[in-house]
User: Fold this.
Amino acid sequence: MSTLAANWRTVIRSGLIAGGVALYTALIGMLVAFDEREVVRNSFTLGQLLLVAPAVLVGWLTGRKSIEVPAVQLLLRGLVAGIVSSLPLLALLLVSSLVNLRTVLINVDKDLVRLISFDHGVGLSGALILASALGAAGILGAFVHLIPARLRHALLTALAWMLGAGILGELVRQLLSQFLDREALSWFLRRDTLKPEPAAVLFAVVLLADLFWSWFRETRGRREGPAPRALQFTRVGGLAVLLLLLPLLVGSAISDVLSNIGLYILMGLGLNIAVGLAGLFDLGYVTNFAVGAYTMGVLTSTGVLGIENKMGVTVFNFWLVLPVSLLVAMFTGFILALPVLRMRGDYLAIATLGFGEIIRLLALSDWLKPIIGGAQGVLFIPAPNFFGVELIGPQRLYYIILGACLLAIFVSSRLNNSRTGRQWMAIREDEDVASAMGINTARSKLLAFTISAATGGVAGAIFAAKLGTIFPTSFNLLVSVNVLSLIIIGGLGSLPGIIVGALFLVGLPELLREFDEFRLLLYGTLMVTMMLARPEGLWPSAVYQREVRRGEERAPPQAGEQAA
Amino acid sequence: MNGNSPLLVLDDVHASYGNIHALKGVSLRVEEGEIVTLIGSNGAGKSTTLRTISGLMRARAGKILFRGEDLQARAAHELVALGVALVPEGRRVFARLSVTENLEMGAWHRGDSQGIASDIDNAFTLFPRLGERRNQLAGTMSGGEQQMLATARALMSRPSLLLMDEPSMGLAPVLVETIFETIEQINSEGTTILLVEQNAQMALGVASRGYVLQSGNIVLDDDAASLRENPVVQKAYLGMD
Assistant:
């Protein structure tokens, strides 16, 4: 009896937590902001999705805890959790009908009331509709556990694809517009919004494909061992062709997003050497980015600040300055590493954080204004020239970034498996013992900082040439935070993880303008969720995986599960 | 080389953590081939002594001579090459590396891959448990196994002096016996050992000589058998009345 009561207490408590989350998203204006984007035209908006998401999730979670109870009980718990999660929003409806909350909570406006009451106003009907909608969402979440595994996977995958296509409507339009004319395109989308018919078709196609695939795999039996050489070769070749053709396939706007993602991948690879391999928590990575960018800017600019105008030297171009930027960044990295060599952990993070701020303030300062332009920045940085072809525009710059990323990936993976890499790993694990083993920790940490800085410098130099102008505002703390976050979310020390992390943290906000305002909130939520659900990251390194998931039998992560 | 000169000499060594004066003039010597133990209660300065010898801490005053050479002039990472290896307090194995990888780390300064491979085999003969778990992550092993690994890792550098810091800490009595048997075995194969222990009973059982450390001072210094008979030691460290 008492365990039963305890179970219900858990259900109610989880429901209240979900309700708190829903109330929070409402009060900060996230619900209303997201409501402006329809996921599927005339069907539902991102705001509505966000409104029911906590209830679905809590239904799913309570269902997971009570998997062994009878089906009716399971659904009942989902229902109760869902209804309980509507309580905070109900209270909000009630209070806002009595007093004008807007004077204090500016986001509690008509739009919010309309959204959470599903157009039924603050009265009883609105409240009933909200409670029953979230109750239904709770049941839905719990119901997921009752679907047979194979069908469940297919349904969730199909749902993820449909929602993904709907939310990233702009991306879908950009992709399709490369192949379809206006008329054909208008069957799929209206502006950036997916229409119901293609959404349904997409859902059905993915559902069937997934069912077919799981049936296919089962009948053929799972292949064991590494893939044959020929197949591996085809895969790598296919990937290479895809990477080369990508900017042509996706058009200019998406290529720009890809370039930004690429720059962050580059920085992620660099910072990974310090943080992922050597365990040095560097929160001032923007320093290297800024040094690289300003080196490129000052040496190649054709404006008043450029070396060309000041000294009449015209030999500098992008290709010549790129290695110079790298060297200058390495040198700064080396110099800044010297005073922090004896610091560890949080102290190191705080000190490097300070360096990041110092660089930004130096860039802004009047003192250096004659050289790097202060708040006015450096203008007229020419685009790189490749044997007479001016690499202007994201579709062409993409290739430079791709090349730099591939080089950095190559170097990183070689370092990873080298004696130097092992040395860094030992320092990360235990610095004292590492030095007792005969490792010169000071030299090895300096090396990590310096190599890490080099990559950041290259990213900065390309960034300067890409934009053509640089301003101190581009070099703020957020750059360091972004780079560190993408490493952690991708999986500390994992190279594929950096790419996945950059796609998530840099790509998504670029495609979803609505997210931009809530970017930091998203980061925070993602970080906490990651630490709870997948502490090893989205695509963990082999070492980290065997550490965190030891002893647990675990199927490889599947796209559908993650999206759900 | 003068066979009679001690392997390790500490002469009036002082060390401190900030304002806390942890070692107030420690002097001791370890002869080639001996097991010397340093016993004392918690906070007496035992670990500080070892940290200072191994260069993880700097002495404020005094001399530390290894084969007549001043260790103070050397950085911590240079000591392995001289023949000094440390088994740190609390094991401190590289948790996210496998057993074999930990052993390879121990042989970091050596370049002879064949010698390293045969030493790893020797380590697995000395500690069969480690051989059974050669691919396991060190962090997932039991305390006793980690102690074996930390010891084996230190031996990988083929040291002439092994500094052991509280090898019995936190281990079940049966395991403590095994560890001390191994210590005797390592010593019989020619490695000199300076053993820091709280478990005075066991330590004095294997050592030839011992020092008693109290609040940063050496208060007693004798051969192990006499120390065991000493009423002060019996009362304070052996739990006898």
The beta strands of chain A are 38-40, 44-45, 189-190, 193-194, 385-386, 389-390. The two ends of chain A are 33 Å apart (CA to CA).
